[in-house]
């Protein structure tokens, strides 16, 4: 091979080229780092640019849960940054969404990471058996970072001296005693690097429990960049304006608002996407109005088409929200709704409840904020947004804010930067 001439290249280029070659030879580590110091630590950055990340979840994949959507989207985002990502999930096949041929397409994510389902028998104590399976997997598979939302798995990761990040979407201190004890041990470990939470309010809750502020990083949820805003679905009926709600229909999510305002806006059409059959039956009986339409659950790859078809999108969270099967925690205090970011990514005019946690993201510039139970103001906001120019202005500002701060990829970047 022809020798590289120092005289033919800028000196800095020559040094960088030489060091890159040294990375793939048997040059000693000390020599590499001497040169790296001269170049502003470029070699260190090069070496740590790639990581093998094991993501520990307790998500049922595939399922309709927001938890599983979040986990799949974050793994895709870590992988998009050039890292090798392995997602661990329990193989509880009896709880899967039926008739799903491909898990990745169900969540509308690319196959850029590996999904490993650990088989666990359907018996009492299956969660602990799953935890043991995680432990054995970690022992037999090296990683640079363990990231997760499953507290037991994350604790065992630190136990075997793995660099670990735990993400929390609710207060552990309102969970069972076992989880609290495990969490207290987790955060005392020298291998525990960061607690990621989804809102400033949730961070404040942990600080009140004497968790050091510097250990906590706020990362609001996110959404994907929208590839095609013109790809729409055929709605059941079209009105003066088409007003959309996407998400669950359980108590506190805002069906109460639509129930009150829809009959007073007969020329407008309300399109409700999502919900279980039980919830749809309940609300369709209460809202037997000619201008309200229910579409039921739709797959992630179709959700965007519905959002694209709306003129206005609603986020009518109430001041009390209990998720299905959990009456212990009022998530309204610290929630970070996925649909909020999906609306923003879609350049939609948003009308939202003026709850403090939503105002961590939404402002009077990028949304209309009204009292969660001030139904007259909800109606007034819809009338204001009859003006197409105002709709476009609000939607564009929401999109600009999303693009800078709230894409899944940006969220992944921010988290990894916080743990450097």
The sequence of SSEs as H and E is HHHEHEHEHEHEHEHEEHEHEHEHEEHHH
Describe the largest sheet: 7 strands, parallel
**Rounded to an integer, what's the Rg over CA atoms?**
24 Å
- Low-confidence spans: pLDDT under 50, at least 5 residues? 1-12, 14-19, 21-36, 41-47
Based on CA inertia axes, which overall geometry fits? Answer: globular
- Tally of extended strands? 13
> Treating each run of at least 4 consecutive H or I residues as one helix, how many helices?
16
Average pLDDT rating: 89
What does this molecule look like?
By secondary structure, this protein is of the alpha/beta class. The chain is built from 16 helices and 13 strands. The protein has helices at residues 11-23, 29-38, 42-48, 66-80, 103-106, 126-140, 151-159, 177-188, 200-208, 255-261, 277-286, 300-308, 338-345, 375-384, 388-405, 408-418, and strands at residues 52-56, 84-91, 114-119, 145-148, 164-168, 192-197, 216-218, 242-246, 269-273, 292-296, 312-315, 349-353, 368-370. α4 (66-80) links the parallel β1 and β2. It starts with 10 loop residues before the first helix and ends with a helix. The model is unreliable at 1-12, 14-19, 21-36 and 41-47 (pLDDT under 50).
């Amino acid at each position: 091979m022809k020798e590289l001439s120092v005289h033919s290249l800028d000196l800095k280029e020559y040094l960088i080229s030489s060091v890159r070659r040294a990375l793939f030879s048997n040059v000693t580590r000390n020599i590499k780092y001497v040169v790296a110091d001269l170049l502003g630590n470029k070699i260190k950055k090069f070496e740590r640019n790639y990581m093998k990340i094991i993501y520990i979840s307790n998500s049922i994949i595939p399922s309709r849960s927001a938890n599983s959507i979040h986990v799949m989207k974050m793994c895709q985002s870590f992988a998009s940054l050039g890292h090798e990502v392995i997602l661990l999930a329990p193989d509880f096949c009896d709880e899967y969404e039926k008739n799903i041929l491909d898990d990745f397409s169900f969540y509308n994510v690319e196959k850029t990471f590996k999904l490993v389902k650990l088989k666990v028998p359907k018996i009492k104590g299956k969660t602990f058996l799953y935890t043991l399976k995680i432990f054995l997997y970690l022992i037999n598979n090296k990683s640079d970072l363990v990231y997760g939302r499953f507290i037991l798995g994350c604790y065992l990761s630190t136990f075997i001296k793995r660099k670990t990040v735990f993400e929390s979407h609710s207060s552990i201190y309102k969970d069972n005693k076992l989880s609290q004890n495990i969490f207290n041990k987790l955060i005392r470990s020298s291998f525990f690097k960061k607690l990621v939470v989804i809102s400033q309010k949730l961070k404040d809750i942990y600080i009140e429990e004497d968790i050091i502020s510097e250990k906590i990083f706020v990362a609001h949820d996110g959404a994907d960049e929208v590839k095609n805003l013109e790809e729409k679905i055929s709605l059941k009926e079209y009105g003066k304006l088409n007003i959309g709600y996407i998400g669950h229909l359980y108590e506190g999510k805002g069906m109460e608002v639509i129930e009150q305002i829809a009959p007073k806006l007969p020329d407008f059409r309300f399109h409700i996407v999502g919900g279980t059959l039980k919830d749809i039956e309940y609300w369709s009986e209460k809202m037997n109005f000619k201008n309200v339409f229910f579409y039921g659950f739709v797959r992630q790859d179709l959700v965007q088409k519905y959002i694209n078809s709306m003129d206005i999108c609603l986020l009518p969270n109430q001041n009390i929200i209990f998720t299905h099967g959990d009456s212990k925690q009022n998530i309204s205090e610290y929630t970070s709704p996925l649909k909020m970011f999906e609306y923003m990514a879609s350049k939609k005019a948003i009308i939202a409840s003026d709850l403090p946690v939503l105002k961590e993201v939404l402002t009077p510039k990028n949304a209309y904020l009204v009292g969660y139970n001030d139904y007259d103001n909800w109606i007034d906001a819809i009338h204001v947004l009859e003006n197409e120019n105002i709709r476009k202005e609000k939607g564009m500002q929401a999109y600009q804010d999303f693009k800078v701060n709230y894409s899944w990829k940006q969220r992944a970047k921010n988290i990894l930067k916080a743990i450097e």
